[in-house]
């Protein structure tokens, strides 16, 4: 019996790896089952939701907006007010959406908890029980004390599953007397894990689960099947699912147990491979050190020869300067040549004087000429001795392991992008010898610190999402491939720029200002299309004079009350006229109270048409601050003080257009989002809540830029 207990203790301790939460890396505490079937602690789910919510508020936030840029979901003008002002249809939902999406720590897929959030998840009672058994095995002799004893408490002998408490013998008799209902309670050995007798449905809290959804792979109740989220799903009874799953699990476990010899053999093989890897790694280090020592020897030899050549040249030049200096010192009175000539002049014998003076006179003349045309005997510059090591430095910088046929990966700039996060994709141009894994490196390009260290992340695919980037910054990316222990050289560096502020997430508002006769929203509410005046064509026979089609406005469903924010969109190339920008909630109601004649293009606000005083006054009263885009062109608005020619204000339409709102400074900027280049910036009145605003005339379409998530990796793999 004692041997069985020891064997059970060893077995339960051997499964510790399966009892660790992937988020907190500790033993599970009240584990919940996610839709992807991974389990995670209840507290960890809460923390992940808070982190995701904070990330959506300040994703890659800059220092200036980290503390002061919360994104607020603020209501637009209420339905009743708008109905009284203008027409039905302009209303906003009073519900404040909450973040229910976060990446699973186990598989990194995005998990959407839906409307019920954490309340819609099942507790993994089976895993919880196993963890409790493990804790008891780890504690060994640690006793569970009675919950009802007066101090000091006695050691408990049993636990009541109905009361969720542990008792000693005396307390159990007192609180569960014979002949009462409590005497019928279920009790077990001492435990701290109390689980309900019946598993209730999280969707319908008063219903017990009695069916199993084969599509969602989770227990459900009959109400879920009748009219809930599982009404069209294939379900089976709990007993049938229990029998089927238990048979499959038992069969698979028996198969693995039957292969125990094979598993042990493979474990032994892995141990040998680990030892071989250790030896090969040390040998590779020695060989690498040997190659570098040879390089050091070559460099040291070169260094010695170059230093020696410089020393020889320096000595020759100094010798020449020394000789020249001595000659010039001889020209001084009573020194050298001049002193000798002065002594010769004292000679009184004419024949002796003539014999000596002729040669001396030639030397004096030569010294006089050199004095008139002074020229140093040597050069002081060592320009000819400057070592050019730029090519060698470049080669040394590219020094890497011999690729042995592993192609150098190349970052695909067309598929790589930066928005709320960075998506980096790469491929092999040759498509012959691909790598098994990759190391993606990236670093911020800083003027203050030019040589920032590279951050690395290991990738087993050909794309990776990077989230820890700062706003309004430039980053360099490069990638290298690995095939076994062989590494390829790094790819060419690609530089991408992050948005000037955290990315602001919103959808088109289908209730506030949405005209369903002219505009068409998709189900996701991230795309709007304009139908080109079909009602006008029907009435064309009554049109006898020129007229203008009015703009159809639509705003975002989320308001901004402080901080810096950036969002991006794509305008379809066939669009006739599209306007994008921001709208003020305070002026929006006034605009609806006093509708203007919008049949004239003179009053279609884009901050650029006409600059008369009457338009300037009108511009300050309307809620919209927009720029015009259409016919594949971006029109830079003309200010009253600008003298720019019209052709200088018409730019090619960017593929992706970004809008940057600095609420605190009252500025709005319009960007080429692919290159993060500002095309136009102006002041804007931010006294109230600001909303992203759009307008369309004629045929056109606007697609909001999709935020980058882990799903991008799935799309890349599918491609």
UniProtKB/TrEMBL annotation:
The B box-type domain covers which part of the protein?
A: 196-238
Domain Fibronectin type-III, chain residue ranges per copy: 405-501
Check the record and name the Gene3D superfamilies matching this protein.
1.20.5.170, 2.60.120.920, 4.10.830.40, Classic Zinc Finger, Immunoglobulins, Zinc/RING finger domain, C3HC4 (zinc finger)
- PANTHER family from the entry? E3 UBIQUITIN-PROTEIN LIGASE TRIM36, E3 UBIQUITIN-PROTEIN LIGASE TRIM36-RELATED
UniProt cross-references to CDD domains, sorted A to Z: Bbox1_TRIM36_C-I, Bbox2_TRIM36_C-I, FN3, RING-HC_TRIM36_C-I, SPRY_PRY_TRIM36
Gene from which this protein is expressed: TRIM36
GO MF annotation, one: zinc ion binding
Q: Which family does it belong to?
A: Belongs to the TRIM/RBCC family.
Q: Which residues form the COS domain?
A: 345-402
**Which Pfam families does the entry mention?**
COS, zf-B_box, zf-RING_UBOX
Which residue numbers delimit the B30.2/SPRY domain?
486-713
Give the record's keywords alphabetically: Coiled coil, Cytoplasm, Cytoskeleton, Metal-binding, Repeat, Ubl conjugation pathway, Zinc, Zinc-finger
Gene Ontology BP term (one): acrosome reaction
RING-type domain sequence ranges: 21-66
Localization, UniProt: Cytoplasm, Cytoskeleton
* Protein name, per record: Tripartite motif containing 36
Look up keyword Metal-binding and say if it applies. yes
């Amino acid at each position: 019996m004692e041997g069985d207990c020891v064997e059970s203790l060893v077995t339960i301790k051997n499964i510790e790896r399966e009892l660790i939460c992937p988020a907190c890396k500790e033993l599970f505490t009240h584990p919940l089952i996610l839709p992807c079937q991974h389990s995670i602690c209840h507290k960890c789910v809460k923390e992940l939701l808070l982190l995701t919510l904070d990330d959506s508020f300040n994703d890659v936030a800059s220092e200036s907006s980290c503390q002061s840029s919360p994104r607020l979901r603020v209501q637009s003008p209420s339905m009743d007010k708008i109905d009284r002002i203008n027409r039905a249809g302009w209303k906003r939902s009073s519900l404040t959406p909450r973040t229910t999406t976060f990446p699973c720590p186990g598989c990194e897929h995005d998990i959407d908890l839906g409307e019920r959030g954490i309340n819609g998840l099942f507790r993994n009672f089976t895993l919880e029980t196993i963890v409790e058994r493990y804790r008891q095995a780890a504690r060994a002799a640690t006793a569970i004390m009675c919950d009802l004893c007066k101090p000091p408490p006695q050691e408990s002998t049993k636990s009541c599953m109905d009361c969720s408490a542990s008792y000693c013998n005396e307390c159990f008799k007192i609180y569960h007397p014979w002949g009462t209902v409590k005497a019928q309670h279920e009790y077990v050995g001492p435990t701290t894990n109390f689980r309900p007798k019946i598993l209730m449905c999280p969707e319908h809290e008063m219903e017990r689960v009695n069916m199993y959804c084969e599509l969602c792979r989770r227990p459900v109740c009959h109400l879920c099947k009748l009219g809930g989220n599982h009404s069209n799903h294939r379900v089976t009874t709990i007993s049938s699912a229990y029998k089927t799953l238990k048979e499959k699990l038992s069969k698979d476990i028996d198969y693995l147990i039957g292969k125990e010899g094979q598993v042990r053999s493979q474990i032994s093989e892995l141990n040998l491979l680990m030892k071989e890897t250790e030896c090969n790694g040390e040998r590779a280090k020695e060989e690498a050190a040997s190659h570098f020592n040879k390089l050091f020897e070559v460099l040291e030899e070169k260094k010695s020869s170059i230093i020696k050549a410089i020393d020889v040249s320096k000595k020759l030049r100094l010798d020449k300067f020394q000789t020249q200096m001595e000659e010039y010192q001889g020209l001084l009175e009573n020194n050298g040549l001049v002193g000798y000539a002065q002594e010769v002049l004292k000679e009184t014998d004419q024949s002796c004087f003539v014999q000596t003076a002729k040669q001396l006179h030639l030397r004096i003349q030569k010294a006089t000429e050199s004095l008139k045309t002074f020229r140093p005997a040597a050069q002081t510059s060592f320009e000819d001795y400057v070592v050019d090591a730029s090519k060698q430095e470049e080669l040394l910088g590219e020094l890497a392991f011999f690729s042995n046929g592993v192609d150098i990966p190349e970052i695909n700039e067309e598929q790589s992008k930066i928005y709320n996060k960075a998506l980096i994709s790469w491929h092999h141009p040759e498509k012959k010898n691909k790598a098994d894994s990759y190391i993606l490196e990236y670093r911020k390009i800083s003027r203050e610190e030019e040589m920032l260290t590279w951050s690395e992340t290991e990738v087993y695919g050909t794309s990776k999402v990077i989230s820890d980037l700062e706003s309004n910054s430039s980053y360099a990316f490069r990638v290298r491939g690995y095939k076994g222990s062989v590494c390829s050289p790094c790819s060419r560096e690609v530089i991408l720029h992050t948005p000037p502020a955290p990315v602001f997430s919103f959808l088109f508002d289908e209730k506030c200002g949405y005209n369903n006769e002219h505009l068409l929203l998709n189900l996701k509410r991230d795309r709007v299309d304009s139908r080109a005046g079909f009602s006008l064509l029907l009435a064309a026979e009554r049109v006898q004079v020129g007229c203008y089609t009015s703009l159809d406005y639509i705003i975002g469903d989320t308001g901004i009350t402080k901080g810096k924010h950036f969002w991006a969109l794509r305008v379809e190339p066939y669009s006739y006229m599209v306007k994008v920008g921001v709208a003020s909630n305070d002026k929006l109601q006034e605009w609806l109270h006093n509708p203007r004649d919008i049949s004239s293009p003179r009053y279609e606000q884009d901050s650029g048409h006409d600059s008369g005083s009457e338009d300037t006054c009108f511009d300050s009263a309307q809620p919209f601050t927009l720029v015009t885009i259409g016919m594949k062109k971006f029109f830079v608005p003309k200010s009253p003080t600008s003298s720019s020619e019209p052709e200088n204000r018409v730019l090619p339409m960017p593929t992706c257009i970004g809008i940057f709102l600095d609420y605190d400074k009252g500025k709005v900027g319009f960007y080429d989002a692919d290159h993060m280049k500002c095309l136009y910036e102006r002041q804007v009145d931010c006294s109230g809540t600001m909303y992203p605003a759009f307008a369309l005339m004629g045929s056109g379409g606007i697609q909001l830029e999709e935020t980058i998530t882990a799903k991008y990796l799935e799309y890349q793999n599918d491609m």
